[in-house]
Amino acid sequence: MLRTVRIGHAVAAIVCLGFVFGVSVDWIGHAQQPAAPAVAAQPPTGIPIEAAGFVGKTATLDTTGYSVGRRIFAPGSHNATWHMHTAGQLIFAESGHGRFQIKGQPIHELAPGDSGYIPPGVMHWHGSVPNESFTMTFITMGVSTTSQGEALTEDVYLGRK
């Protein structure tokens, strides 16, 4: 019995590794069972079709190159410089209060649940408000590089300039 349990655990581990690393584990099936019927081919990503659970036509889109991150800023913390990304960026306020500014625009304040969009190739900065910490989630919308610009002054951060 102990040997059977160990073999069962080993097979389960191999199956899990197959799922994690995308390796086929077809050889584990039972010989007596008939082969599963072929699954209908999925339409190419991005082409809207009728889909279960939806009204109308919809499709998932490719997220290759997208990245998700989270950052916490202590009160009064922010980027040291203006910067830009070659891909657009979405920022979502999780907790506390933050702010971001796109060069040439007013400062945008963010409270929990608020979001902001920064287009690709646009100088901007982000951080917390002066007296409260801020946690944000950000999504960079594709493969991107970041370029640093001029220093962000306290006058700009505080909205005096």
Question: What does this entry look like structurally?
Answer:
The protein is α+β, with helices and mostly antiparallel strands. The protein has a domain at 67-157: Sandwich (Jelly Rolls). It has helices spanning 2-21, 154-157; strands at 49-50, 57-58, 67-73, 81-85, 89-96, 98-102, 108-110, 115-118, 124-128, 134-140, 146-151. It has a 4-stranded antiparallel beta sheet with strand order 3-10-5-8, with no helix packed on it. The longest helix has 20 residues, at 2-21. The model is unreliable at 1-32 (pLDDT under 50).
Topology of this structure?
Elements: H1 2-21, E1 49-50, E2 57-58, E3 67-73, E4 81-85, E5 89-96, E6 98-102, E7 108-110, E8 115-118, E9 124-128, E10 134-140, E11 146-151, H2 154-157
Antiparallel strand pairs: 1-2, 3-10, 4-11, 5-8, 5-10, 6-7, 6-9
In quaternary terms, these chains amount to: single chain
The amount of beta strand, in percent, is 25-35%
CATH fold type of the domain at 67-157: Jelly Rolls
CATH architecture of the domain at 67-157: Sandwich
Largest sheet: 4 strands, antiparallel
Cα-atom radius of gyration: 24 Å
Query: Strand tally, please?
Result: 11
Count of alpha and pi helical runs: 2
CATH H-level superfamily title of the domain at 67-157 = Jelly Rolls
Shape summary: elongated
Mean pLDDT, nearest integer? 82
Helix/sheet category: alpha+beta
- What is the CA-CA span between the terminal residues? 76 Å
State the CATH class of the domain at 67-157: Mainly Beta
Q: Into which percent range does the helicity of residues fall?
A: 10-25%
Strand order of the largest sheet: 3-10-5-8
